[in-house]
Amino acid sequence: MGTYTISGSYIQPTFPSLGHSPFASKLPFIRKLGFFNSAACAGFSSFEVKDVSFRPPGTQLYLLKDVSLSLPEKRFGLIFGQSGSGKTTLLQLLAGLSKPTTGSICVQRYDDKGHPIVSPEKLTPERVGIVFQFPERYFLADSVLGEITFGWPRQKGNLQLKQQLALNLQRAINWVGLSGIPLDKDPHSLSGGYKRRLALAIQLVQTPDLLILDEPLAGLDWKARAELVRLLKYLKTELTILVVSHDLKELAALVDCSWRMEMGGLLRKEPLAL
Ligand SMILES: Nc1ncnc2c1ncn2[C@@H]1O[C@H](COP(=O)(O)OP(=O)(O)OP(=O)(O)O)[C@@H](O)[C@H]1O
Ligand SMILES: [Mg+2]
């Protein structure tokens, strides 16, 4: 593992090349590095939504009906479908921001032959990073560093925790290619593409097992879109990613599994026909 140095107002990458938003409550940031230590044991893990239905409390209308999906680790999943069909609603459930009315959201471990081993584990919110549509609208701090570290523990002590956070910070900044940006720069003055990178870095500091992105390319120009697609291609080698998007062509090369959300909250598996 590399070390970190904060030199002047830049973070100097010393790693080998290897989100606050209103959701800063998803602390603690410190996460294990790696997914279930999968290198150590054979088989694989999969994020699984099983027969999930959702009716907002106090309403009669179901927004999601018997939704099921399975996304193996280090895969890139895409959900597409009409506006108002329930895509964002499903992401909110995956991130733990709402609870399913019925059904379950868990992580299942399988052996090499695809047989489940051990019981499924509940997917907890700490294991999920979510970047909402137009995340830059939620920026609150007046510096890049302030934005990333918003909500971090401020009290004295717990040096080990702070060192680990700093390491995670450096790695996240390197991952998203923000290392050339001064840390005291006003996040609102960044270009559209760099604002999205910053929003990603905020989530990546937590080292989520599952990274969820709602319409990540929306509102960006063609160059920023192409750069973000390249970045997602890289992040796919490190994380499991689930994206909601209308931009099927641009993301098609990354997609391992795809689903269409039908109006009324019905999800069905559908390969991209491109
Ligand atoms: N808390 C709520 N109470 C009642 N209805 C809601 C609530 N939240 C969302 N809805 C409705 O649920 C439906 C699904 O909304 P959702 O935002 O998940 O759609 P979406 O597929 O993400 O759409 P878009 O592509 O426009 O982002 C919409 O009809 C929306 O108005
Ligand atoms: Mg939506």
Task: Walk me through what this model shows.
- There is one protein chain.
- With 274 residues, the chain is an alpha/beta fold.
- It has helices spanning 87-94, 144-149, 159-176, 192-204, 222-235, 248-251; strands at residues 5-7, 10-12, 44-54, 64-72, 76-81, 102-110, 116-122, 128-131, 210-214, 240-244, 257-262, 266-269.
- It starts with a strand and ends in a 5-residue tail after the last strand.
- Mean pLDDT is 86; it is low at 1-40.
- Magnesium ion binds at residues 87-88, 214.
Number of strands: 12
Chemical compounds bound to the protein: adenosine-5'-triphosphate, magnesium ion
- Unreliable residue runs: 1-40
Shape verdict? globular
Number of helices: 6
Structural class: alpha/beta
- Gap from first CA to last CA: 41 Å
Quick rundown:
By secondary structure, this protein is of the alpha/beta class. The chain has helices at residues 87-94, 144-149, 159-176, 192-204, 222-235, 248-251, and strands spanning 5-7, 10-12, 44-54, 64-72, 76-81, 102-110, 116-122, 128-131, 210-214, 240-244, 257-262, 266-269.
Highlighted features:
disordered N terminus, binds adenosine-5'-triphosphate, 4-stranded antiparallel sheet, binds magnesium ion, 23% helix, 274 residues, single chain, 6-stranded mixed sheet
Topology:
Blueprint: E1 5-7, E2 10-12, E3 44-54, E4 64-72, E5 76-81, H1 87-94, E6 102-110, E7 116-122, E8 128-131, H2 144-149, H3 159-176, H4 192-204, E9 210-214, H5 222-235, E10 240-244, H6 248-251, E11 257-262, E12 266-269
Parallel strand pairs: 5-10, 5-11, 8-9, 9-10
Antiparallel strand pairs: 1-2, 3-4, 3-6, 6-7, 11-12
Magnesium ion (MG) binds next to helix 1.
Domain ABC transporter: 47-274
Keywords: ATP-binding, Nucleotide-binding, Transport
Organism: Erythroxylum novogranatense
